[in-house]
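Note to self: keep these together.
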Amino acid sequence: MPPHPAGLNAGDTGDTRDREPVHGPAGEPVSDGQAAHGESAEHGRRILLTPASAIKMRPVAWTWTDRIPSGALTVIPGREGIGKSLTLAWLTAQITRGVLPGRHHGTPRPVIYAATEDSWAHTIGPRLLAAGADLDMVYRVDVQHDGGFDALTLPRDCAQLGREIQRLGVALLAADPLLSLIHSAIDTHRDRDLRTALEPLVNMADRTGCAVVGLAHFNKSASPDALNLITGSRAFSAVARAVIAIARDDEAGDGSCVMSQAKNNLGRLDLPSLRYVVESVEIPTEEGPAFVGKLTITGESARSVGDILGDGASDGDTRSERDAAAAWLRDYLISQGGEAAWADVRKAARAEGIAERTIQRARTRAGVTIERHGFPSRTVWCLNPGHPASPAAPVTPQSRQSRQLPERGATGATGSPVASLPIPGHVPSPR
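Structure:
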């Protein structure tokens, strides 16, 4: 991919238009090395202005359609032990096999995997194999230094890393975790300091078109906003163009986790959340079998990471209150024929003395899904008769069948049940 045109100066674009001479306060001509105010410019630096008309516009290219932009930084934050590293292994497998919906669909591409916390022999390699990655297309990255080897360090190694990415046509740089790649002399809790490492990384990604996906940890705070929970400076979420947050859904009862788009500067934010499970699988090695975790995405989730984090940052409602609210919600929707507009649900709940936040938290427990109808769209809450929390009696007066809505799979596309899809996503981008 060619360098971003916005980074070019007038000389780089071939601009040979005559410029009017610049004059100082007394009318004297000012040289290129001086500012218009008559002050000497810093040695080796000068201001270059490029008209917007000279900058070539480009559409956004997606490594994972609508979720992970190419040529930009994406951060995946979450708490310990919920499969963040397995998410990177899953992404790596999809890209090296060419099956991830996006610009590389149908064309397997290499991945550089930078990991510092886990053993390649015992953990990372087996995870990649279990995920189905083409191991010939996954590269561990080390830096040779003074006769030994160091870990990749930002921003010091950005230039050489960029050259290797271009040489191999790498589609993804996986950083596990992103924080461990930052030079130890940089204070990652100070916004300005952290940007000295992240901005060269982002510029390198833009030049090469490679997607950079880095893992991050949540701090111990309680907040429904995933961006506020990322450990370290706010620069992690500010510099990233996309953030995909992950959280375990204790309400589900099956140990499953949810991933939601918490930030998406280059695309849609109203993407469906995805649910996944982590299962133990056996892989063969020369020294006997090994057991590792494997991430499997099971479909879309009506409950988002924001909903889950909101439970942890409860503003007073108890579990018993949410149970009571869930029971009321089921009864109310049954009385309405199985569905009701969100505005009506909220009004009825308020009349019963149930807070809006409590009824929102009770939605998943009640087996309620959200749909949007019409234009302009309105939000409708629908009772799922097949949910374990729902009564056995069928919901018929205004059931989904009577509305004749097409079934939707994990992609949001019609006609395919979730189980038949290898991975969730949208129709592959033509880019």
